[in-house]
Amino acid sequence: MAAPERSMDTSSSFLQKFRLYETRSNFYMIGRDKNRTFWKVLKLDRTEQTELNFHQDSTPYTESECFETLRRIHEGNRSSGGLKFVTTCYGIIGFIRFLGPYYMLIITKRRKLGEVCGHTVYGVAKSRIVTIPHASVLSTVAYSKDEKRYKRLLCTVDLTKDFFFSYSYHIMHSLQRNLSNNAEGQTYYESMFVWNEYLTRRIRNNGTDCMWTVALVYGFFKQVKLSVSEKNFRLTLIARRSRHYAGTRYLKRGVNEKGRVANDVETEQIVYEEPQDGHPVRISSVVQNRGSIPLFWSQETSRLNIKPDITLSAKDPNFEATRLHFENLAKRYGNPIIVLNLIKTREKRPRETILRAEFANAIKFINKGLSKEERLRPLHWDLHKHSRKKGTNVLGILGRLATYALNLTGIFYCQLTSDGFQHQNPSTVENNIGECSTYDLPTKDEIASDSAVENGNDSKDRQKEATMLQNGVLRTNCIDCLDRTNVAQYAYGLVAFARQLHALRLTESDTIDLDNPLAEDLMGVYETMGDTLALQYGGSAAHNKIFCERRGQWKAATQSQELFRTLQRYYSNAYMDAEKQDAINLFLGYFQPQPDKPALWELGSDQHYNAARFLASSVPEISRSTMKRSLSESSILSEGSSTVAGRHGLGEKDEEVKGLSDSAPEIISTSNTTAMIAGSFSAPPATLEDIGLDEILENDCFCYNDDKHDGEQCTCAAFDMDWVSSSGASCEDESYGRSTMVRSFETIPESTKLESEICVINTKRDEVITMEGEVISGIPQGYVRWVMDEEEGHFW
């Protein structure tokens, strides 16, 4: 296969289209670049069943030389059937082995999703699994029931939904990071947002060029073309889901020992003007984050309880895992870290409030060891409570909170040359870190001046603009980080959107009213993203009550939609998530089958491995097929740890476990009284008058650092406290305490016994009930109340 020596620069090119051929002993993959300037050859050995052997020909070929090489291979293998064409493909996803042979996952069809700086982003439209060894060398294991079941399980990871990639742009990184730190070689595959890192590990470790594989990101990508004042621009919204501690709603909660949280998603909003010949392209981006509350807590999936009790572990008394999580955020985004916590302040039976109190304790504890610049900036605001108040402008209040956060972090803005990804001054971004903010936005006079220059077609006189950087990030959470969180992220995105358009000199004002058509356009994109992320983690589309009300949708239709989504989410969590979690663990390499070990489906629930091993073993193991009944006023799921001993291969193998004790933890149940939480906070209130947050958080509790004598407030526990009972307990007495009380009553309210026994209740066709003045037909009233009462989601 040798070719004549030639000078052909392929360092800046990318293979984008491939053809797969086979002989009895080898696979041959032929790849070419987009412009058909060079071809390369990759050979895979088919004679070994349990080994994966590659050979990449380093020689770049012309088209004629490539086809001549294939002709010679065909002639040399004519006696065994010759060379056969298998399929056209668009990149290798990776390689995997269960109990028998290796398999290769390839993309056989792609679809264009959009562009970033002229670089195309694709979605996976169709994929295929190819068995590497030839049928003649396969053993009986390759045809065993377990092998086939593993293969079917892997196929349940639908690569055609929400996976995307780019050949020439590092889509797993933010725009700011790409412009300031161009990752080379294999380093970008190690990103927390590359989901096929494990599948590509063998070919990368073999020294083979990464141009054969694509780095898959899982989440959401949508790009729309909009216009303002007859000026066109593109809006791109990207959500990147972390592969660390990834999974489904009830099987992945809270934080793990490495500081990784469940449902960890980075959202990036990119805005740039349509390129014009001879003009630099202005572009801006802003990043925000969502993730589960970084504490050791869990909820056991139940087929009899739509709202499982929350189990909070006291395994980590010094909040080491929580600290690791926020350290990782600071490393990725810089400081400050603003924490917007949206969970409830008041419940009939304490559930969310337990986590709210503990989260405040964690932030206060961590902040005591940080400098003023590094200190976490918490904003605790009960979205559920305020959304129920008549006349409350929830999006308006969230917009003011977003303004506060953006004033601290800023946005990213720069100019690109018209040829695409080359920055006008490559050193500007790296040299100005920490020196730019949104306060550098252009004035109205500068916009008018710039417009005059453009109308005069004199690009050389265009005013030079300073690069702005985002330093720090807003981290938002509720319980599931789906419904309420998505509303808050939209509010933040809208405030940032206005500043981005202003920075691009497309608007004179740096604010956008909620009634502006651009706000409606942005809301539609965020609503679609919310539905997508909710389906991935929760099993149903997001609860969009506030969005529906904003659009003026009929209240009865909204309630029916929300009820259906609640039932859909409940069914998915109770009956489908276990297998979905197994498939994710298999795809990510967190479980690797071994012949002498139990099969994945023979093990206990994934929740036991990740959360219950931190809890005291007080009851026998609860298998996945056995659902514990937990409907009482004050019950707790006490999870056994014996299952863990039998699990193998689960967890993140590429990170070191730090800082946690192996001692048995204490447990806080959702049965603890409201008075315990209320007594934890009694510090005087404080205000943030600069943007009117004094009105928003007028009853919130701020605490004072003991080390300060000047009365400076540390804002480490800004809670809505208007519901707190007058227990007389002080903040100092209970601020870091954990209750070890476990109360469990198996009494079930009479109103819920019958309806909670089964999933679907047979009713008369003409049965009609009334719900808050609206009519819903076909569902028993008691069941509807049971579903909707304080449920995270449509009634928040």
From TrEMBL:
UniProt keyword Kinase present: no
Compartments (UniProt record): Vacuole membrane
An example Gene Ontology CC term for this record: vacuolar membrane
Superkingdom of the organism of origin: Eukaryota
Region annotation (Disordered) ranges: 638-660
One GO BP: phosphatidylinositol dephosphorylation
Gene Ontology terms, MF aspect: phosphatidylinositol-3,5-bisphosphate 5-phosphatase activity
SAC domain location: 90-388
UniProt entry tagged with the keyword Hydrolase: yes
Bilayer topology annotation: Peripheral membrane protein
Catalysed reactions listed for this entry: a 1,2-diacyl-sn-glycero-3-phospho-(1D-myo-inositol-3,5-bisphosphate) + H2O = a 1,2-diacyl-sn-glycero-3-phospho-(1D-myo-inositol-3-phosphate) + phosphate
Keywords of this entry: Hydrolase, Membrane, Vacuole
Coiled coil segments of this chain: none
Signal sequence, renumbered to the chain: none
Bias-annotated ranges (Basic and acidic residues): 649-659
Broad class of where this protein is predominantly found: membrane
Quaternary assembly: Component of the PI(3,5)P2 regulatory complex at least composed of ATG18, SAC/FIG4, FAB1 and VAC14.
Name of the molecule in the record: SAC domain-containing protein
Originating species: Brassica campestris
